[in-house]
Design goal:
The structure holds 2 protein chains of 2 kinds.
Chain A lengths: L2 H25 L8 E8 L5 E2 L5 E2 L9 E6 L6 H18 L7 E6 L7 H9 L6 E3 L3 H11 L3 E3 L9 E4 L2 E4 L4 E6 L5 H13 L2
Parallel strand pairs in A: 4-5, 5-6
Antiparallel strand pairs in A: 1-10, 2-3, 4-9, 7-8, 9-10
Chain B lengths: L1 H13 L8 E8 L8 E10 L5 E3 L1 E3 L3 E12 L2 E6 L3 E3 L4 E4 L4 E8 L7 E7 L2 E8 L7
Antiparallel strand pairs in B: 1-2, 2-8, 2-9, 3-7, 4-10, 5-6, 5-9, 10-11
The chains are: A alpha+beta, B mainly beta.
């Protein structure tokens, strides 16, 4: 093989490599697939709820970290654990990939009649450290939910045996305490693993 | 020994076209109660091998004070849990009880140390099937 042919070969190989790098960059995921990033970022409203140690939870509680906010209740053996499992699985996968920052999970109980702050705290702690369980009076809960477009309604039942209908959405709150993005569901861990780093990177 | 085996096979063959039980349960999973909670979910696949629709109106378990038939649905973005009066398994088909859909809600365990959970499926007063599942699964 002549030196000239070797030179042409090297040039072609470099061009091919550059093309491959460019193609990968161009097709790199840069847009969230599932989440709706809010065009206007509204601050969380004024509200006052309680954490498991009965400390006040308000808008300031959400400053300086990302939170995945979900509304549910503990007397719910199916959908609520399923959603929390999905969020916890996404959290673990992102942590394993070295993602920083990592959003915490915040479960707000919309069933304050049965869910004490301590109970909701135990429940959320089951899905990993650093997550937060919150509840409070119906009036304070409604201040938060109505500002975020979250619906909940206790259903008729016998005594302690009743269900609470609630919005199935998961809301991403940014470190400025603003409603940043919406995952309306169905919730799939891979969607969170894909979208969260992109959304947080573009913040 | 060989003769015995052949005889057995002939006998099985002689029993007719379909000797399978009418109702079969598979993939039975009972979730472990969440911390502080006294309820679990039960998931399974029910297969109807008969030519008639099978209806389940009631489920009992010696390990739980109460078992209800439930369905989770999400409509218009709202998650709802509803009690079902019955679960039907059409002839020759499966009905799947799975997370996020139809499921059993098992309440107030009577034996928290139980290694297995027994479920009895009824149509009215008629016992259709008894299933035993292994130890409850942690939902995490």
């Amino acid at each position: 093989m002549s030196p000239r042919n070797i030179f042409v070969g090297i040039v072609l190989a470099l061009a091919l490599a550059a093309g491959l790098v460019l193609a990968t960059r161009l097709s790199a995921p840069a847009e969230p697939k599932t989440a709706l990033v809010m065009p206007a970022r509204n601050a969380l409203p004024e509200f006052e709820l309680l954490d498991p140690l009965r400390n006040t939870v308000n808008r300031e509680t959400f400053l300086d970290q990302w939170s995945l906010l979900f509304f549910g209740f503990t007397h719910c053996p199916d959908i609520c654990p399923l959603t929390l499992q999905t969020l916890a699985a996404a959290q673990r996968e992102l942590a394993a990939a070295g993602q920083q920052p990592l959003p915490r999970i915040v479960l707000v109980s919309v069933d304050p009649e049965r869910d004490t702050p301590q109970l909701i705290g135990q429940y959320v702690a089951h899905f990993g450290d650093g997550n937060l369980g919150v509840t409070g009076s119906l009036d304070e809960l409604k201040k938060l939910t109505s500002a975020l477009g979250i619906y909940f309604q206790k259903q008729p039942g016998d005594g302690e045996s009743y269900a609470v209908d609630h919005s199935a959405a998961v809301l991403l709150v940014n470190p400025n305490g603003e409603f940043h993005a919406l995952f309306s569901g169905p919730h799939v861990a891979a969607d969170y693993v894909h979208d969260l780093p992109i959304i947080m990177e573009n913040y | 020994m060989r003769t015995g085996l052949i005889l057995l096979l002939v006998l099985v063959g002689a029993c007719g076209a379909d000797t399978r039980p009418a109702l079969v349960a598979s993939d039975v999973t009972i979730t472990q109660p969440m911390p502080g909670m006294a309820m679990s979910a039960g998931y399974l696949t029910l297969t109807n091998n008969s030519a008639e629709t099978i209806t389940i109106t009631r489920v009992n378990s010696p390990q739980y004070a109460s078992v209800e038939l439930h369905e989770s649905v999400v409509d218009d973005g709202v998650a709802r849990m509803r009690r079902l009066e019955k679960i039907e398994i059409p002839a020759g088909k499966n009905t799947v009880l799975a997370p996020g859909g139809k499921h059993l809600m098992l309440m107030r365990p009577t034996d928290v140390a139980a290694d297995a959970v027994s479920l009895q499926f009824y149509d009215g007063a008629k016992l259709l099937l008894t299933v035993t599942s292994s130890k409850p699964q942690d939902s995490r």
